Amino acid sequence: MQDATDNRLAAQYEAYPYPARDPREEAKRLIVGSPSHLLEIDHWIFGARRPASRPIRALMAGGGSGDGTMMLAQQLAQAGRPGEVVWLDRSTAARKVAEERAKVRGLTNIRFVNGSLLDLPELGLGHFDYIDCCGVLHHLPDPAAGLAALAGALAPGGGIGLMVYAPHGRTGVYMLQDALRLLAPASEAPAERVEVAKRLWKHTPETAWLRRNPWIDDHIKGGDAGLYDLLLNPRDVAFTVPALAALIEGAGLHLRCFVEPGRYDPDRYLPDPRLRARTAAMTPVERAALAEAITGNMGIHIAYCTLGEAVEPAWDDPASIPVLRELDGPTLARGIPADGVLRVAFDDLRVGVPLPRLAAAILSRVDGQRSIGAIGAALAANGIAQDVFLRDFAALRGALEPFNRLLLAAPA
Q1: Are the C-beta atoms of 59 and 86 separated by less than 8 Å?
Q2: Which Gene3D superfamilies has this protein been placed in (predicted)?
């Protein structure tokens, strides 16, 4: 499905591997995010029911310079979990960066393959338990065909983590893309186009919407690769919530959740009971679409989807082990405000999340090792009745799971 635009896109990522990364910085930090965090895969894709001892085959479809690949491969290695992460991309320049990053980290669980996700059947890579497709579908000539190709490469019970651009939070981007098509046509060399784009941004008046958009900064902080990808990309299609949901359904996949799920709950922004009475009658996709439309700050959508109906995490099983994503339980417990309301912020939007009375006592015992039953037993020894613990634990889960923070770990 290559066309002239696709050829220009391929040339772009050879000239400017994205995102711009210096392999030497791997010794300093691991870039962590969504999708494809191991705890998220265990929870949202496998319902925290797939044993950690079972090997995972993961595909990074459009792996670029390797952020997601490094994160997942490193997390598997640190946890001592078996598996293979297959990096797949057309860009030889991006592969060079990703391979050097893996070398610095000493990772041996990554396999590098040059190629297109559209050619998966011909590449003979087999089937995968998990597929990452982050920032790729919105550049393809036919996103539906791309997602269908990925769905066809899933093993039974597998799932996909997606990231695509969203329109409202990218307000101003497409206007400057239009301007640069006039000022820096695609026929010019990439370096010359970057120079023109830098000059344009320097002199863009304050009335330009991108000047007023605080959530998009790749052209400021992402180096030449970030600027090119944002403002000079030859094909860039943004998806609303309904459009992405339709794309997922069309590929025969089940939408498990948007990340973070709580961000897509319109009731968090609408305290008016008459408005909530209307949102209550909406489908989950309609509710998410409403949240997208009224907040206006979503520049991307991240979604997890599964092949077949999702397996729900066993929150009612005392043997299940709760885990906090990128948080320390005791530290979080000590930081709970006096009023018991946790303030959560995303892209300048703040919401209050009420926590139950036993939140601190429970969180201080969440260490990724103790089960729900063990935590309840510890509190029972301090005089907390079982029914009171279970009520407050359910409330705590209802407060933190929607923000992708309290999850269940994979069983041993």
Answers
A1: yes
A2: Vaccinia Virus protein VP39
Question: CB-side exposure of 56: number of CA atoms within 13 Å?
Answer: 31
Mean pLDDT calculated for residue range 170-185: 97
Question: Tokens 């009171």 — which residue?
Answer: 388
Model's pTM, two decimal places? 0.96
Q: Which of 159, 336, 181 is nearest to 248 (CA)?
A: 159
Contacts 24+ apart (CB under 8 A), 4-11: 5/141, 5/234, 5/235, 6/140, 6/141, 6/235, 8/186, 8/234, 9/139, 9/233, 9/234, 9/235, 10/90, 10/91, 11/190
**Calpha distance 304→30 (Å, rounded):** 22
Radius of gyration in angstroms for the set of CA atoms belonging to the chain, rounded to a whole number: 22
Confidence grade of residue 315 (pLDDT, cut at 50, 70, 90): very high
Would you list the domain boundaries of the chain? Answer: 4-165+239-306, 169-232, 322-407
Closest CA to 318 of 400, 411, 256, 405: 411
The mean of the pLDDT values for the chain is 97
Question: Residue 1: pLDDT band by 50, 70, 90 thresholds?
Answer: low
| 3-state SS track over 292-317 | HHHHCCCCEEEEEEECCCCCCCCCCC
- Domain 4-165+239-306 in this protein, CATH class: alpha beta
CATH class (in words) of the domain with range 322-407: mainly alpha
